[in-house]
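Contributing new records

If you add data, match the layout below exactly. Sequence lines come first and carry their own label; structure lines follow with theirs. Keep one chain per record. Anything else will be rejected by the validation script.
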Amino acid sequence: MKTRIRELRKKNKLSQEELALAVGTTRQTISSIEVGKYTASLVLAYKIAHYFGLTIEEVFDFSELEEF
């Protein structure tokens, strides 16, 4: 899944470690989400979006998911 996390981190001058600490996860998890190896849980997605003052849809790209 594509995300805007890297873009948002750079814009806010945050390291992966700083973002991870702010949302209660590890740097490795943030890295894995950024490169698409891991999909964030709903709770983590909410925390990340909330941290940046955005909605989940503004941070995570759901366009690749099949429509029901």
